[in-house]
Design brief:
Elements: E1 23-28, E2 31-37, E3 44-50, E4 59-61, E5 69-75, E6 79-85, E7 93-94, E8 115-121, E9 130-135, E10 138-142, E11 150-151, H1 153-156, H2 161-165, E12 177-183, E13 191-196, E14 199-203, E15 211-212, H3 221-225, E16 239-244, E17 251-256, E18 259-264, E19 271-272, E20 285-290, E21 298-302, E22 320-323, E23 331-333, E24 351-353, E25 361-364, E26 370-373, E27 381-384, E28 390-395
Antiparallel strand pairs: 1-2, 1-28, 2-3, 4-5, 5-6, 6-7, 8-9, 9-10, 10-11, 12-13, 13-14, 14-15, 16-17, 17-18, 18-19, 20-21, 21-22, 22-23, 24-25, 25-26, 26-27
Length: about 400
């Protein structure tokens, strides 16, 4: 299936910087946490918890209504479910109907949701619409602010889904996942999702039909070594995270198992910009972050890229790399980060920014630490310690 090229649309107005306190919503292996700052972002403290002992992959505040917060949860009582809050995360209720696969289409294996991995608010003009991505790979939509969820049949029952993903027994280490659900802020019907493994998909009709968007990426290091980037690989890639540039949703960034890529959507082809990282730095990792006011700027957090892939900071020396020219050049930013023996990882949802100027950038680690930079990565300090393993980090919600 050849990808249909999107026609370029208008760019968005550069958002005005904000001031004041920052609120970090943290999903961990042992519950959800809220870390809040003072007005100057000098002091950060844990100010709230939810579901201690519960596996929480994602906690997201609604940018359309900041007092509304949704979180994924996995526990023995309710299984995989969504919880929603209408008071800024002070109290939560369990969704009446959580994401669940319907009866499988003919020829497809019946699936059951193991855990809910991803949450995304819908279009700004669709006040109560949310999307959820699951393991095994499924897409779900809520039209009532998270209270009930229904499958997006156009994807979940797609006749090519098994072929795209490798089937139900997909063997990615943490289980097969659908993630990076992106809604074009200019068009509620225009969606992207990423499949690990499977590749990037795009819909122009709110999920009724889908195209693959993987030209230019490779499925393995062997394909890269054989210089197969120019051979169209329709599916089977393992994108770890897909993001849109804040002011130009036609510019996409991707951190994948086989590299860092950038696409200008009208071109329809991913460019391997991770090859421009400094010599000796692998462009393997989970997290990538785009600047909300500059479509040419982005950050990545590389991990050890050896064949065994330890998923740790290379040589125990963590650092971010920033580009300001669309990936042509990358500069290391590690001032204040540990200089040695810091063998932690950063998951795909654990790199976030605030809306200040200069921008605050925040990193959640597998060791339960949150590191922050209040000057767009030029220097770092530890804001919180002793949390459980961090799965996700989001900025948002009420600050009072």
């Amino acid at each position: 299936m050849t990808p249909s090229l999107s026609q370029p649309k208008h760019k968005l107005r550069v958002p005005r910087p904000k001031k004041g306190r920052v609120r970090l919503l943290v999903g961990t292996r042992k519950g959800a946490f809220v870390v809040g700052s003072d007005a100057e972002r000098k002091e950060f403290d844990v100010v709230g918890t939810e579901g201690l002992g519960t596996i929480v992959h994602h906690v997201v505040a609604d940018p359309r209504a900041p007092k509304k917060v949704l979180m994924t949860a996995l526990d023995p009582e309710h299984g995989a479910h969504v919880r929603y809050s209408e008071d800024g995360g002070r109290t939560y209720k369990v969704s009446r109907k959580s994401p669940a696969f319907g009866e499988a289409a003919k020829g497809l294996q019946q699936r059951r949701v193991h855990h809910i991995f991803w949450l995304s608010p819908g279009h700004p003009q669709e006040a109560d619409v949310w999307y959820a991505g699951t393991s095994p790979q499924g897409l779900f939509r809520s039209r009532d602010a998270g209270r009930t969820w229904r499958p997006v049949a156009g994807l979940n029952n797609h006749p090519l889904l098994d072929r795209w993903t490798g089937g139900y027994e997909d063997s990615t280490p943490d289980g097969p996942t659908l993630h990076s659900i992106r809604v074009d802020p200019r068009d509620a019907d225009h969606l992207y999702v990423a499949l690990s493994a499977g590749g990037v998909l795009e819909s122009h009709n709110a999920g009724r039909s889908w195209n693959t968007v993987n030209a230019g990426t490779v499925r393995s290091f062997e394909e890269r070594e054989q210089q197969l980037e120019d051979v169209e690989q329709e599916f089977g890639q393992d994108p770890h995270l897909l993001v849109m540039a804040g002011t130009d949703p036609d510019r996409l960034w991707q951190q994948g198992r086989t590299g860092v890529y950038r696409m200008d959507r009208e071109d329809g082809h991913w460019q391997w910009v991770g090859s421009n990282l400094p010599k000796g730095i692998d462009d393997v990792g989970f997290a990538i972050l785009s600047h909300p006011r500059d479509p040419d700027a982005a950050w990545v957090f590389p991990l050890d890229g050896s064949r065994t892939w330890s998923r740790t900071a290379p040589k125990g020396q963590p650092g971010l790399y920033r580009t300001q020219d669309g990936g042509k050049k990358w500069v290391r930013q590690d001032r204040g980060l540990p200089r040695a023996h810091a063998y932690w990882s950063v998951k795909r949802q654990a790199l976030a920014h605030d809306a200040h100027d200069p921008l605050g950038v925040y990193v959640g680690t597998s060791q339960g630490e949150i590191w922050g930079s209040l000057n767009e990565g030029r220097s770092w300090r530890c804001l919180a310690r002793h949390l459980p393993e961090i799965y996700s980090l989001e900025v948002g919600g009420v600050t009072s």
